[in-house]
UniProtKB/TrEMBL annotation:
<feature type="binding site">
    <location>
        <position position="162"/>
    </location>
    <ligand>
        <name>substrate</name>
    </ligand>
</feature>
<dbReference type="GO" id="GO:0061711">
    <property type="term" value="F:tRNA N(6)-L-threonylcarbamoyladenine synthase activity"/>
</dbReference>
<feature type="binding site">
    <location>
        <position position="109"/>
    </location>
    <ligand>
        <name>a divalent metal cation</name>
    </ligand>
</feature>
<dbReference type="InterPro" id="IPR000905">
    <property type="entry name" value="Gcp-like_dom"/>
</dbReference>
<dbReference type="Pfam" id="PF00814">
    <property type="entry name" value="TsaD"/>
</dbReference>
<keyword id="KW-0963">Cytoplasm</keyword>
<dbReference type="InterPro" id="IPR017861">
    <property type="entry name" value="KAE1/TsaD"/>
</dbReference>
<feature type="binding site">
    <location>
        <position position="177"/>
    </location>
    <ligand>
        <name>substrate</name>
    </ligand>
</feature>
<keyword id="KW-0012">Acyltransferase</keyword>
<dbReference type="GO" id="GO:0002949">
    <property type="term" value="P:tRNA threonylcarbamoyladenosine modification"/>
</dbReference>
<protein>
    <recommendedName>
        <fullName>N(6)-L-threonylcarbamoyladenine synthase</fullName>
        <ecNumber>2.3.1.234</ecNumber>
    </recommendedName>
</protein>
<keyword id="KW-0479">Metal-binding</keyword>
<dbReference type="InterPro" id="IPR034680">
    <property type="entry name" value="Kae1_archaea_euk"/>
</dbReference>
<keyword id="KW-0808">Transferase</keyword>
<dbReference type="GO" id="GO:0005634">
    <property type="term" value="C:nucleus"/>
</dbReference>
<feature type="binding site">
    <location>
        <begin position="130"/>
        <end position="134"/>
    </location>
    <ligand>
        <name>substrate</name>
    </ligand>
</feature>
<dbReference type="GO" id="GO:0005737">
    <property type="term" value="C:cytoplasm"/>
</dbReference>
Length: 348
């Protein structure tokens, strides 16, 4: 039996989770929300995490109804992510490890999402679609590694959605992606957008540039086409653009996931990451899975959005399998690929 505390702070959410032998004891978090039209900067995000992490730890232990002495290991997000927010979690984790005399483990953020999804859904060996604000990957497990079959070649799908939400001045509360999803439900007209799939990889930056021009023709990069297209494009509502953006980029994700599913001969798909709780993405993926005789697994916002529990669970799995980390290696890294991690806790 392993009892682990996890600290997640790679982006705009700071979360603390406690898990014991697969049982969820606590999962608390707070989100740094910026005004409409603005993103979150590393320095201000780190300040938010620093101001909230102490109280969150208290709240987690109160919710879990345990004492620090009952912990077996302290875990934190080692990367990938933004350096200043990551450092807040790492520094606090190192401090707690020394204060309580507990082992310390750094966890790959992406692995945390995957293992949390597998725990909650009980998926055995799925093709994983990992979609968030910073990552877009199609993943399959093989020979002690989570292998990346396809990924974005520029920006992540969540970043594309977030940036378009800022362009049309949607609220960042509770999240820009959620508000795009709600607005898309009101859309009735599909606007044709670039569809960019390159083998097993996808690209979103060109789509974002194109739809930005549609949202505001006055900012069109090619000035000669401004006047001749402004009238036609002005008829596109924000609702129609949100609807069209979701339909296009989600279709791209379903395509590369289906290709990985066929290649691996799998019959399971697991969607993880913050974008994974989008109901339209789940619906489109479920249709594809049903047509192939496969099953879709997904989680709700408690587990697919960044949280400390996923770091606690992945860390507990690592600890149970004998993983150790010297204290001098308890640093953070902004670049930490999913396939760099040796998956010591899986025998299949």
């Amino acid at each position: 039996m392993v009892c682990a505390l996890g600290i997640e702070g790679s982006a705009n959410k700071i979360g603390i989770g406690i898990i014991r032998n697969g049982e969820v004891l606590a999962n608390v978090r707070r989100t740094y929300v910026t005004p409409p039209g603005e993103g979150f900067l590393p320095k201000e995000t780190a300040e938010h995490h620093r101001e909230n992490i102490h109280q969150l730890i208290k709240n987690a232990f109160k919710e879990a109804n345990i004492e620090p002495k009952e912990l077996d290991v302290v875990c934190y997000t080692k990367g990938p992510g933004m350096a200043p927010p990551l450092l807040i979690g790492a520094i606090v984790a190192r401090t707690l490890s020394l204060l309580w005399g507990k082992p310390l483990l750094g966890v790959n953020h992406c692995i945390g999402h995957i293992e949390m999804g597998r725990l909650i859904t009980a998926a055995k060996n799925p093709i994983v679609l990992y979609v968030s604000g910073g990552n877009t990957q199609v993943i399959a497990y093989s020979n002690k590694r989570y292998r990346i079959f396809g990924e974005t070649i520029d920006i992540a799908v969540g970043n594309c959605l977030d940036r378009f939400a800022r362009i049309i001045k949607l609220s960042n509360d509770p999240s820009p992606g959620y508000n795009i999803e709600q607005m898309a439900k009101k859309g009735t007209q599909y606007v044709k957008l670039p569809y960019v799939v390159k083998g097993m990889d996808v690209s979103f930056s060109g789509i974002l540039s194109h739809i930005e021009d549609l949202a505001d023709p006055s900012k069109r990069r090619n000035k000669r086409k401004k006047e001749e297209t402004a009238i036609a494009e002005a008829e596109y509502s924000k609702e129609d653009l949100c609807y069209s953006l979701q339909e296009t980029i989600f279709a791209m994700l379903v395509e590369i996931t289906e290709r990985a599913l066929a290649h691996c001969g799998s019959n399971e798909v697991l969607i993880v990451g913050g974008v994974g709780c989008n109901e339209r993405l789940q619906e489109m993926m479920r249709i594809m899975c049903e047509e192939r005789g496969s099953k879709l697994f997904a989680t709700d916002e408690r587990y697919c959005i960044d949280n400390g529990l996923m770091i606690a669970h992945a860390g507990a799995e690592m600890f149970r399998s004998g993983s150790q980390m010297p204290f001098e290696e308890s640093f953070v890294t902004q670049r930490y690929r999913t396939d760099e991690v040796l998956v010591t806790w899986r025998d299949d």
